[in-house]
Amino acid sequence: MQLLAPGANTALANAHCSWNLESGTSSVFGEYAAVALLAVNEKRQPMGDPALLHQEQSWMEWSGGPQDVGCTLKLDRLPAGSDRVLLMVYVYAAMGPIRDFASLRLKVDADIEHRLDLRDNGEAAIIIGEFYKRNDQWKFRALSEGSA
């Protein structure tokens, strides 16, 4: 298993990948917080509707449940003009900071792992990863970017 720190990246095997996200707090997804995927261009401008827990897009499919959210991505089917997908976690209506999750553990294709300790994070939303294409190769970058 390859463990990535925020800012580190690695190549993906192909344009179809899957990921699984677990929270340190049980049953947080769907009740208190959610996950969103946003197809963007190189300037991070949205290039289509976001994928929300209650709204899939043609380039992805949700799986899992409140403790552990999963997704299959078809990166070669992103909307025209997009070359990356941002993976975000947010608290509904900014009801509180994401530090209430305690931690997040993301696994990509069962061989890449990204762990975040959120106990000191006061943000209501955070970008935890970015799937992107560079030189005809799909890659994943581990992130920890807050947003008010």
Helix content: under 10%
Strand order of the largest sheet: 1-10-9-3-7-6
Q: Please name the CATH architecture.
A: Sandwich
Question: Roughly what is the average pLDDT, rounded to an integer?
Answer: 92
> Using DSSP, what is the number of strands?
12
Number of helices: 0
Taking pLDDT < 50 over at least 5 consecutive residues as the criterion, the unreliable ranges are none
Q: Report the CATH C-level class.
A: Mainly Beta
- Report the portion of residues in β strands: over 45%
User: What is the 3D form?
Assistant: globular
- The class by helix and strand makeup works out as mainly beta
Give the topology.
Layout: E1 2-4, E2 9-11, E3 16-23, E4 33-40, E5 51-52, E6 60-64, E7 68-74, E8 84-91, E9 103-108, E10 112-117, E11 125-134, E12 137-147
Parallel strand pairs: 1-10
Antiparallel strand pairs: 2-12, 3-7, 3-9, 4-5, 4-8, 6-7, 8-11, 9-10, 11-12
Keywords:
148 residues; mainly beta; Lipoxygenase-1; 6-stranded mixed β-sheet; 6-stranded antiparallel β-sheet
